């Protein structure tokens, strides 16, 4: 069951105090725990997760719409999906100290369920669903102002620039060109790649990386730098 | 531009009266119209659609959570995705008389844009995004109470029952059984299929349909009827 220490922390750190303690408990209860403890009349978090998922999508969208007015719809959508995906919310669950509080069945615990990012994300969503039911959307917003929104503003979720696309757009301003990426030393070291980028058959720049994708990105970045410096 | 007749209808039929008329106008303005009318300082609906999409996901989820308590999380999720998908909201846009009010560019109009379901869905989302910005979430809920929620309650969005899954669950209550579906007259008519369902090698029932999937569903339905009648 959720610890008194955790309940105290929620109140002191985030000003969150549940009226209905069962809602909080349900948000932290995995179905494997319910299955192993049929006598406890406790539900699992799945329906709260269904609701919390939508609550978070809405509050995050509202925040982005109001605070990131310089972004267009495509950029907003990409940023939103970076935030609401598994990586993002599982990080938030860890940051908020949710991990040790989850009620897991013995089998799920042994199978490493507590470490699964998808499960941590579920619990973060369920918690926000429970908070919404208990105290309304303003309480969720107040919690997110202290947790998720600062992480958004830190740039943590901002998609990294795609240099390959940028290079393509730059080069094709005046019509189609032939851009080719070629790995030039794959055999030398399996953990380091060197890639050359050619435009209409002429090598423009090269890049290195731990994998082919990263090496291509660096090659495109170097090409862009060379092209835009040359234009000055 | 949105007609005065439409503005009057929104007020009289749904009690919706925008404080900021520009928000309403923006919700009905496609990018093709903005491109052709650069002198009008009007934005297109895309950012309102980004917001409205999340507003609708949230309000619909909240409604389902509170009013469909007998459904489990999987059923709630399926029902929600039936509602928020293109078919659902484009129908709502038509029902609410949105179609003639959309500001479209000449090219988009000629290309049949006004008939595109995806565009109608976009406008329905954008309208709800605009209404939320203008008057808050309660105003959106009040509008949906008169439009979307009754359609949900009519069963319009309820997924049709999956008889194959139901049959499997029924038969495997006491352990694993071997269920087989077999097309028995595919060659006779390409537009009608007859399928037999066998359990542990014994034919239980058959079904017909325009395609194999439908014939299998009917076979499973007939099998379920036979099994549950027999059990009475």
From TrEMBL, chains A, B:
Could you tell me which residue ranges the DRBM domain spans? 162-229
**Where would you say this protein principally sits, based on its record?**
cytoplasm
Q: Give the residues annotated as active site.
A: 53, 125
Can you list the GO cellular component terms from the UniProt entry?
A: cytoplasm
Localization, per the record, is: Cytoplasm
Q: Which residues form the RNase III domain?
A: 7-136
Q: What is its EC number?
A: 3.1.26.3
Task: Fetch the Pfam families from UniProt.
Answer: dsrm (PF00035), Ribonucleas_3_3 (PF14622)
Listed under catalytic activity are: Endonucleolytic cleavage to 5'-phosphomonoester
- UniProt cofactor(s): Mg(2+)
- Keywords annotated in UniProt: Cytoplasm, Endonuclease, Hydrolase, Magnesium, Metal-binding, mRNA processing, Nuclease, RNA-binding, rRNA processing, rRNA-binding, tRNA processing
Q: Which domain of life is it from?
A: Bacteria
Q: Which CDD domains does the UniProt record give?
A: DSRM_RNAse_III_family (cd10845), RIBOc (cd00593)
Cross-referenced Gene3D superfamilies, in alphabetical order?
3.30.160.20, Ribonuclease III domain
One GO MF term on file is: ribonuclease III activity
Q: Which residues bind Mg(2+)?
A: 49, 122, 125
Q: Which family does it belong to?
A: Belongs to the ribonuclease III family.
Output the PANTHER family linked to this UniProt entry: RIBONUCLEASE 3, RIBONUCLEASE III
Subunit note: Homodimer.
Function comment: Digests double-stranded RNA. Involved in the processing of primary rRNA transcript to yield the immediate precursors to the large and small rRNAs (23S and 16S). Processes some mRNAs, and tRNAs when they are encoded in the rRNA operon. Processes pre-crRNA and tracrRNA of type II CRISPR loci if present in the organism.
Q: What is this protein called?
A: Ribonuclease 3
Q: Which organism is it from?
A: Lactobacillus porci
